[in-house]
Structure formats: structure tokens, C-alpha cells
Design brief:
Elements (H helix, E strand, L loop, with lengths): L1 E6 L18 E4 L8 E5 L5 E5 L3 E6 L19 H4 L125 H4 L2 H5 L13 E6 L2 E4 L8 E11 L4 E10 L6 E4 H14 L19 H20 L7 H8 L5 H12 L6 H5 L1 E2 L10 H58 L8 H27 L1 H40 L5 H60 L5
Parallel strand pairs: 6-11
Antiparallel strand pairs: 1-2, 1-5, 2-3, 3-4, 6-7, 8-9, 9-10
Helix pairs in contact: 5-11, 6-7, 9-10, 9-11, 9-12, 10-12, 11-12
């Protein structure tokens, strides 16, 4: 007898490994055993995956084919709870047998190196060694783990203490069971007979998604708790274009100058140090690339809904070549400009420590570094620091927010494509100017020179002026070739540097949008539960309020991106055209000088 089930309600998959169901659809089951309220099977379209057990009714009918082997049949009840619940890390009672380790579901992504907390790369660049680090790393520090996982300690009876509580004040904990035997955090059937409080918003089965790793899911479900200091608050205000980050009351800039090669260990180790001069202190400090890399890691971990600009890429060889150092300095200057221009990033404690800590005070640097790495306002707790407008007219319409975010998503996709195209075109054009154009103009110059040399065989005085004019024309074309070769440094290279910076921003926004979309999905699910009489209105309103906080922050970041984009591309296009005009004026001047030589012939 083949195991089959009939879908009682529609279900739309939202995560990898899930399949969608249509009401009255008949499915083939891989096993009758549910995994935390989920079954595995094959729908009528041939898709195989997981779906809520409470959305189907198991039926038995004769069938010639045996059921497909279950990929999750050996997962014990509560198996997926081991992946998400901090209680799963508690040592089991002495009398109980240890639970088997559940397998990772087929098709799920393995944890990426950047799993909610950035780890600086340990490449062959000069930028990583232990000269200013003690023996501990971020992971070694208590409470250094970010994301949605709780910090735990094995002391006494094996209790846990989290950076933020994994249990909510209004919902059952992740490891508890709901009313009627349904696992907490998984969907209940619409129209069920349970009490209103029995239904809870489902958790993403993919625990490696950005929405989960960033702490967005835990925050929306009400599981974040912590004490927010006034200095940690990030304010969103309503501006002419909608939500905006509150402006920095003390704006500043920071120059990056004089990259110098320095040594240590009696010359055994060499590195490049950059001089930073913040305008609000006027005190210069020296930082290596690894310090920039450390700061980027802290900021990328702390701010899941803010686009932290990417640093210029590393390079394993040629790190001390003049061209590479100059290019990196320009990239760092763009990076620093975007950091100082962001109302939130510019005021971050870690960034201020980076800018102001004296280069020679190693003790102060380590203290500030450890403080940043032990920051409790990360993961779900970060969203507690966001203060949004309150009162009449300050609420967001979810459909309008979804429309704006979808529009921005389409915009970033198109901008990314056009930026790649422009970067390729500019790079190819620069290559032609440096090699092809220079060679062609100098070939013309050489031809004129040969003509001049031929005319010099005529010893008559009447041709002397002409010979000199033609020789000068040859020199003019040689000089024009050199102008072409040097010109990309003046106009095209700055454009490509700007495109590289914005390609980093565009790579950040899919994750930012994913967090907002995940929150919006939870709101829709809670509204459905309320309409079906399975969730209290107060609980659903709490989910919507927390989603609004994420939406306000997302829209504020989108508006900041557009504001800076208009500023940067206006300035850069003006600079590009000005340099083009100067270039052709120089070319024209060379040609006019050559022309005047013929006046006296």
C-alpha cells in the first residue's frame, strides 16, 4: 500500500527544500513520520520536498509502485530543533541516551564562510599577522558569535545564557510544543479547532538564510531582548522622500594620504601604512589595510540592513608597486568618503575608534577592538536599537512598502548590469588609448619624420622651413600619442573606481531586501492566522510593528543610497567631461602649434 495524502489547503513554498501544495491535490508520501510537523513527499507536478503535516490528510490507496525512500526517515522527532534551539546544546541527563545528530537535508546550502559574522580573510596579503592581536580571536571571545544563535556556556548544570534571549515574552520557546501537539513555529491548519493562542508564525526551515542569520527572524518573532543605551539608538525620520536616517549632527570628512612603506621585526616584515586625518579631530593616525579589513568585518556583522561599502580587493603579488599602492589609496578614499557620509556608520563606536585611537597606543587599540567584538547590539538585538517615527501618519502601508522594495530590487538589477557594461567598455577603451591609440599616433608621427628626413636631402634653402615644420608635426603627433596613453588616469580610471565601489553596494542589497521580505512574509502569515481565528490580534500586531521597524530601516537605507548615488555620479560625470575637454584642448594646442610652423615657410 503506497502512502498518499490529500492537501486540505493551499501552501506556497518560501524556502529551499519546500514544495507548494494546491487544495485537493494528491501527494505521494516518502514516510508517514513527520519531522517537527513537516512531511516529505512528491506533489502532482513531480516536485519533491517538505510541506506542513497539518496541511494534508493521509490517505491509503493501493498502488503498484512502492513509496520513494525517505531522505529524512532517520531524523528523530524534534531533529530540526537541534539545528535552531539553544537548549539543544545542553548536555543530556545522565539516564537519557544521547540524541543522534540529524543529517542536513538534501539540497540545503552548507554554511557559508560568512555566516552572520564576518571573518577577515587570511590571504597572502601583507595585511594579516599578529602584531596588534593577542592570542584570542573573535570566536574565542565570550559572546562574540552573532547571527541568530545564542551564546552558551557549560557551567554548573549546563545552563545557557544568551546575548539576547531566544525565548519570547509572548510566544512559546523554540523548543516547546504548541497546543494540540503541533510543534511551535510551524503552521497550523486554517480553521482548526485549537484556541487562538495555539497558532504561531512558522520559522524558516533553512536556518542558513540571511533572514535567519541576521537575526531578523528572531526579532520579528519577538525573541530579542536587551538594554539599549541612548547612545546606541539609530533614529529614522520622515523626510521629503520618505523614511531617512537622521542626519549626523556633527558631520566630518577624513583624508587618506601619504601611503608609506614601513618595516618591523628589524626589517623582516614590510607593509604599507596610510595616513588618516579626520576633520573633526585634526589628529593624524596611521592604519594598515588589515585595520580597514577588521573594521569592515565588524560593521558588516553589526548592520544587516545597512550597505557597508566594500574595500578595494586584495592582491597577493605586487603589493609594493607604485601603481597598485596608488590605486588602493584611491579606492580607500572612496570607501572612507562613503563611511563618513553615512549618518549611522559615521557615528558607530568601532569606526570612531578606528579614526581616533593613536597609532602608537597599542593597549588602547586592543581595548577598543575587544569592546567592538563584544558588542551585544548585534543580530536580533541590533533591530532593538532602531527608533522609528510614531503617531498618526507615521505608519507604513505594507503593500506600498512591498511595491517600493520590489521597484528598488529591479532598479539595482538593471544598475548592476549597466555598471558591468560601462566598466567593461571603459576598461577596453582605456586599453586602446594606452596601447593602440598611442601606437597609431606615433606611427603617423614616425611617417612624418621620415618624410622630413627625405626632404632634408634637398640642400636648397627654400625647403629648410618646410622640413622643420614637418619635423615639428611629427613631434606633435608623438606627443599626442603620449597624451592618449596618459589620459585614462585622468578620466576613465576614476569612473571605474566609482563603479567598483557601487558594484559592492549593489552586491549588498539582495541580502538587505531578503531581510525585509522575510519580515513581510511573517506579517502576512500572522494576518492569515488572525482571519482564521487562530491567533490573537495583539500578537499579530506585535509582529507587524517589528516588521515596520525593519521596513523603516530598509527604506531609509534605500533613500540614502539614492541620495549618495546622485551626488557621486553628478560629481564624477562632471569631472570626466572636464578632463575630456582639457584633453582635447591639449591635442588642439599641439595641432595649432604645428600649424603655425607653416606660416613662415
Amino acid at each position: 500500500m503506497a502512502l498518499r495524502a490529500r492537501a486540505l489547503y493551499d501552501f506556497r513554498s518560501e524556502n529551499p527544500g519546500e514544495i507548494s501544495l494546491r487544495e485537493h491535490e494528491v501527494l505521494s508520501l516518502c514516510s508517514e513520520q513527520d519531522i517537527e510537523g513537516w512531511l516529505e513527499g512528491v506533489n502532482s507536478r513531480g516536485d519533491r520536498g517538505l510541506f506542513p503535516a497539518s496541511y494534508v490528510q493521509v490517505i491509503r490507496a493501493p498502488a503498484a509502485e512502492p513509496p520513494p525512500p525517505a531522505r529524512y526517515a532517520n531524523v528523530p522527532a524534534g531533529g530540526f530543533e537541534l539545528l535552531t534551539s539553544p537548549n539543544a546544546f545542553k548536555p543530556p541527563p545522565a539516564a537519557a541516551e544521547p540524541l543522534p545528530q540529524p543529517p542536513v537535508p538534501a539540497g540545503y546550502p552548507f554554511p557559508a564562510p560568512y555566516g552572520g559574522s564576518y571573518q577577515p580573510s587570511q590571504g597572502s596579503d601583507d595585511d594579516w599577522d599578529d602584531d596588534w592581536d593577542d592570542s584570542s580571536t573573535v570566536a574565542d571571545e565570550p559572546g562574540a558569535l552573532g547571527g541568530s544563535y545564542a551564546e552558551f556556556e557549560a557551567s554548573g548544570g549546563g545552563g545557557t545564557s544568551g546575548r539576547y534571549r531566544m525565548s519570547t515574552r509572548s510566544e512559546p520557546s523554540l523548543g516547546s510544543r504548541g497546543v494540540g501537539g503541533h510543534p511551535a513555529g510551524h503552521p497550523h491548519p486554517p480553521g482548526g479547532s485549537g484556541a487562538k493562542s495555539s497558532a504561531t508564525v512558522s520559522r524558516n526551515l533553512n536556518r542558513f538564510s540571511t533572514f535567519v542569520k541576521s537575526g531578523g527572524e528572531a526579532f520579528v518573532l519577538g525573541e530579542a531582548s536587551g538594554f539599549v543605551k541612548d547612545g546606541d539608538k539609530l533614529c529614522v525620520v520622515l523626510g521629503p522622500q520618505g523614511p531617512e536616517w537622521q542626519e549626523n549632527p556633527y558631520p566630518f570628512q577624513c583624508s587618506i594620504e601619504d601611503p608609506t612603506k614601513q618595516t618591523k621585526f628589524k626589517g623582516m616584515k614590510s607593509y604599507i601604512a596610510y595616513k588618516l586625518v579626520p576633520s573633526h579631530t585634526g589628529q593624524q593616525v596611521h592604519r594598515r589595510y588589515k585595520h580597514f579589513d577588521w573594521l569592515y568585518g565588524r560593521l558588516a556583522e553589526k548592520f544587516p540592513v545597512i550597505s557597508v561599502p566594500h574595500l578595494p580587493e586584495k592582491q597577493a603579488t605586487g603589493r609594493f608597486e607604485e601603481d597598485f599602492i596608488s590605486k588602493r589609496r584611491k579606492g580607500l578614499a572612496w570607501w572612507m568618503d562613503h563611511m563618513c557620509s553615512h549618518p549611522v556608520l559615521a557615528q558607530c563606536d568601532a569606526f570612531q575608534h578606528f579614526l581616533t585611537c593613536p597609532s602608537t597606543d597599542e593597549k588602547a587599540w586592543k581595548q577598543g577592538k575587544r569592546k567592538a567584538e563584544k558588542d551585544e547590539m548585534v543580530g536580533a538585538n541590533f533591530f532593538l536599537t532602531i527608533s522609528v517615527p510614531m503617531g498618526p501618519g507615521a505608519s507604513l502601508d505594507l503593500q506600498d512598502v512591498e511595491s517600493q522594495v520590489d521597484g528598488f530590487k529591479a532598479f539595482t538589477k538593471k544598475m548592476d548590469e549597466s555598471a558591468l557594461q560601462l566598466n567593461h567598455t571603459a576598461n577596453e577603451f582605456a586599453r586602446k588609448q594606452v596601447t593602440g591609440f598611442k601606437k597609431e599616433y606615433q606611427k603617423v608621427g614616425h611617417s612624418f619624420k621620415c618624410l622630413s628626413q627625405a626632404f632634408e636631402l634637398d640642400q636648397q634653402a627654400i625647403s629648410a622651413g618646410l622640413n622643420q615644420a614637418i619635423a615639428f608635426t611629427a613631434e606633435a603627433y608623438d606627443a599626442i600619442g603620449d597624451l592618449f596613453a596618459d589620459q585614462p588616469r585622468q578620466d576613465l580610471d576614476p569612473v571605474m573606481d566609482l563603479l567598483a565601489l557601487y558594484q559592492g553596494h549593489l552586491a549588498n542589497f539582495p541580502d538587505i531586501i531578503h531581510v525585509q521580505k522575510g519580515a513581510l512574509t511573517k506579517v502576512k502569515e500572522s494576518k492569515r492566522h488572525v482571519e482564521e481565528g487562530k491567533m490573537e490580534l495583539q500578537k499579530a500586531e506585535g509582529i507587524q510593528e517589528r516588521c515596520n521597524i525593519i521596513s523603516f530601516a530598509t527604506l531609509a537605507e534605500i533613500n540614502h543610497f539614492h541620495k549618495i548615488r546622485v551626488r557621486d555620479f553628478k560629481s564624477q560625470m562632471q569631472h570626466f567631461l572636464q578632463q575630456q575637454i582639457l584633453f582635447f584642448q591639449k591635442v588642439t594646442q599641439k595641432l595649432e602649434e604645428a600649424l603655425h610652423k607653416y606660416d613662415s615657410v
